[in-house]
Each structure stands twice: as structure tokens, then as C-alpha cells.
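ERR on first pass: missing label on line 2. Operator R.T. fixed the label and resubmitted. Corrected input:
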Amino acid sequence: MVSKSPYNPLVLAGQALFYGLFAVIIAYFSTAPKYTHLEPEISLIKLSFSYHGEPVGECHKRTPEELAKLAPNMRAPISCPRERSPIKVKIDLDSQPLFEGVAPPAGLSKDGTSTLYKRFEVPSGEHMLSVKMNDNARIKDYNMVREEKVTLKPAQILVIDLRRDHGGIFIE
Amino acid sequence: MSVFASFRQGGLVLLQRIEAFFDAIFGSAGNPWRHLGALAFYFIWIILATGIYLFIVLDTGVEDIFTSINYYTHEQWWLGGILRSLHRYAADGLVLVMLLHLVREFFYGRYYGFRWFSWITGVPLIWLVYASGIGGYWLVWDQLGQFSAIASMEWFDWLPIFSDPATRNFLTPGALTDRFFSLLVFLHIGIPLILLLALWVHLQRIAQADVFPSRTLALGTLATLLVLTLVKPTLSHGRADLLLVPTVLDIDWFYLFIHPLMYLTSPAGLWAIATGLTLLLLLLPLLPHPQQEPIAVVSPPNCNGCRRCFDDCPYGAITMLPHPHKPGHQLASVIPELCASCGICAGACPSSTPFRSIEQLVTGIDMPRQPVNALREEMERKITALAGPVKIAVFGCECAADVRHLGSADTAVLNLMCTGLLPPSFVEYALRSGADGVLVTGCREGSCAYRLGTRWTEQRLSGQREPHLRPTVPVDRLRVAWADSHEMSCLKASLDDFREYLQTLGADEHRSRAYTPRRIAQNG
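pass 2 clean. output:
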């Protein structure tokens, strides 16, 4: 029978073996197997915005009669609807539809920002990108259009945003 | 037996075989399988200790954090690099032992009944460990950190909790500010602190919790991690660049497997998997399971307030209250929802001695299913009935190897709810009543269904713990052989060996006379 003394060479060898096995498991799975997040020759288009759409209706100037009916502290001369327009989006890549959707305004009264985040893996190379958006429910067609020839390197990220400070559709 | 019960039983047998094999190499105290919870704590201490240094030296600016970590990894490898690697590998070890701990407790059936609290409070710990660990990868702010941060945000954005998509914080290089990493450091410290608090709650119903491994196991584990850090130091990927997608990554699968899983399914799919598994773990205690035995009962007239049951209860189910009738004395009181019905308290009670002359033995704290008086009567009856050149009394445990199979003309078997229920004086009583030897068996240490039954019994029999076996008891007539439920053959071999040994000893000429020969004759 093998002695279970901690100084028995077999016991020590067994301990070394299993401590080593533990180390190998930790070492291996902490970096392997490799994970391929994006295949070669693929690029990424990210569509993301956080944007306040236009009010769904026209603002109108209150008449003196309408103002008189309001409490004195509520007599704003202009009245605008609270609800905001949803943002309609259509993206074509090389004349092929890539995405079409609507980002509704947030909030119970639909007066918050419309937000969207989408990612599209596309082949790297030169593409014709067409981005159309509508932020005004009173306009039937897309009121913001941008078409651009883009060259995407492998693994490159192209961001499509909607920002007032950049004049609408913004491609980076 | 249901499929579920068969699965659990099969897993338990396999696990116990592995543990028994490791016992032979590491010894019970150093066996990592028996101290997974303690190892998890140990890894947390290593992570905290190494994390303090990294927190002190790291520069958390967007542009600086990557350079800062690389400096300590390469230029100051002998301190910063080693500590970084230790931090990382201890975190990986934590996940490994945590998940093994979960699986082990499941196979041992430690998730229902009085154990529901420890099980349920353990489930959030998994989330907290992952939240702590994944944030650490972001702090490196290399391509892996970028990948993990964006993947995590894409996952959380599926929930309707952010007014703006959180992923927009990583949309372009300009979106990220120094403040982000300051916040991240705050979270990377804050969440582990919440984890420590949750661990404290997790152990609330465990007395004398095993929170630090034995010295040999601690040193062996630390040495292993140190060798690992020197052989394969932790390195960063390339600098994060929000204009490029990280393509091929050396991912840490212990923590970051959730990201590939999300891209393989969808954010909603990952939420379904994560919440589904969490709910499954939380609902597990509600599945049908064996009813708990009646809990311990205190007999105030026989309780002298010695606190031994209070000290020995593995689940803190006993409190000491002022005795209502004896001023200045205390009285044990059982908290019903904490009591495991193990009987370890009855084994600890000094009033449980069979040498008491009263006809009806009533002890200070007793188990309704297996009262000490019934145990004394059963022992007297069975020992009186023994025949043969060598008579042996075997005290076993219902949760361990089934001692009922050992009964024979020369062997009396007493099957206890837990070996910890055995007052040591019963060993002496058995020898004086006619047994030539006493074999005590039960679960191996670490396998004990009630955590401390094996340890307390060993300490009581070796005189290290009260109530102890009297020194006058001939130790060569007592054998202790721990055997889990799958080790019946080992136990039989131990009994045969003991029997042969007793034959060589012959009759004990110095045996004290039976304490109550009249009672034995009557009962026999």
C-alpha cells in the first residue's frame, strides 16, 4: 500500500500533476481557443442615432380668446403638439436594401428621443451607400437623403448617425 | 427513482470517487474538491490584494490606461506584471472553483430544505463575479476590452432601461472620455465590495464556515498561480481603436464566453439563456425533495447551559437564552428554520452519556427520530445478542456507506442519522457491555451531509473536543474508518481487518465491568 505521508514522492508527484493540470486549464481557457469576431474582408456599418423628431403637428398662434381661457401663468402665445415624429430610415447598399425601419419616440406621451442601434456586416471594398431618413410626420417622403461612395477597409467601422449639429445624416 | 434523482445520484457517486481519489493524494484538508468554497474566497483575497496595487499605479485616462498597463506588464514585469497576471489568473480560478462548487453542492443535494437560504443567496454571486470580472477586461482598454465593452452594451441595450443606447458611448473615438474609465474603476471596486457583502449574507446560516483553505492547499495554489504568471504572463491585445472592429481575439472563455454566445444567438437569446438558468437555479429548491426529519428538541430540566451544542451546531441553529427557572444559567434553544435535524447537538450534549443510571435516559437536547435513550436500548440489546469469539459494535451513518449490510452474529450495527450524533461515551459503554471492539464510520470529511459531523466525531474520539472519549478507553479497540456511500467494499475490508486484529488481541482482561448488567440482562 502506498504511504499517504505528505513527503511520499508519489504523493508529491500526484500533487504536482494536479496543480499542473489546474494551471494548464486556467492558462489554456484564459486565451484559447481563438475567437473570430469578424471574418477577413468584412467591414461593419453601424447605424445609430438618438434624435428628437419634429413635432407631429404644426404649431399655431393662440388667439386672444384662447389665451383668455387659460390661467395667467399658462398663457404661452404659441401652442405646439407634444408628440414627436418617429424617425423613418432606409439604407441601400449598392442599390440593394440593407435596412428599413422606424424608430418611435420614447415616452408615454411619445415626446422623447427616437433611438436606434443596428450593426451590419458587409464585404469590404467600394460601395454605393444611400441613406434616407424622415424626422417629420407631416412630410410623406424622406426629407433627408445622403448618397455617398464609400471605401471600406477590412474591419473598418462606418458610422451612420443623425445629428442636428452636423446638418442631419452624418457618416463617419 | 426519477430521472432527475438518478442523474443526481450518479453525479454524486462519480464526484465522491473523484474526491476519494484526491484524498489519497492531497489528504482531506488539502483536497481542493472538498474546499471549493474556501478556494473561491482565497482567490478573492488574491484578487483584492493584487487589485489594490494595480489601482494605485494605473493611469485611467483614455489614452493613458493602455500605455500604463503595458508599462507595468513589460517594464515592471517583476512586480506590476506578476501582480497583473495573478489578478487575472486568480479571477479565472475564481470562476472555475465557483462553478465546481455549484455543481458539487447540487450533486450533494445541498439546495433544498434548511439549505435553501445558502443556495438562493449563492445565485446572485454568480452575476456579481461576472460583473466584477468582465469590467476588469474593459479597464485594460485593448482590443479585447473594446470588444467586450461593446458586446456587453449591445446586450444591455436590448433591455428598455437606457434612454440612449449605451453602445453609443463607443460609437466613435470622440465619444469616450477620461470620465468613463474613472467610472469604470469605481464600478470595478464597488461591485466586488457588493460581492463581499453578498458572500457574507451567503454564509449567514453556516457556522464555522470554511473560508480559508488549509496552509498546504493555499501555498500550493499560490505557487501554481505564480508559476503560471512566470510561464505565461498576461498580455494585452493591441490598443483599442473604435474605428476598427477587433477581428480575431484570444478570448478569456471563463468570463467572456457570453459575447460569442450572444453573437451566435442574439441579445434576446442571451438574456433568455441567462435569466432561464438563473430562474432554474432559484427554483431548484422548490422541486419535490425528501421531507426533513423532526428537528432537535431541548429538555430544559436536563440542559445545564454548557453551550456545547451551541458550539458544535454546523448551521448556527442553536441560541443560548437565560434559563427560565435557574437564575444565572443558560438554556439552549433551537431555531426551527435553521435546524438540519442532524443530531450533532445530541452528540455534543454531556447529558447524552449512557452511563446515567436513570431508566429513561433523557438528554439536554435530543432528536425525536433517534433519541439517545432508544440508541442506548438498541445498543444494549444488540450487544447482548452477539455471539462469537470477537464481538464488534459498529456505529455508522445513514448518509455514508450503508452499515446495515455489516450486521452479523458477531457484529452489532447501529445506524445513526449522522455519526456526529454519537456521544463518545457510547464507545466506552459498548466496550464495557461486552463488545471487544468498536468501529466508527461515516462520511469522509468534506462529504459529511451536515458539514461537521465527521470532524467533530474525530475530535471527540481523539480527546480534542468536548465531550471527549475518556483516556481510560483502550484505543486499540476503537477503529475509525470513514467511507462514503460508494465505498462499501472498503468499509467491509476495514471491518474484516479490525476483526482479525481484535482476534490477535484476544479478550480484554482489563475490561471494566458492564455498567448496568442488570438492565442488559433484562432487555436482552
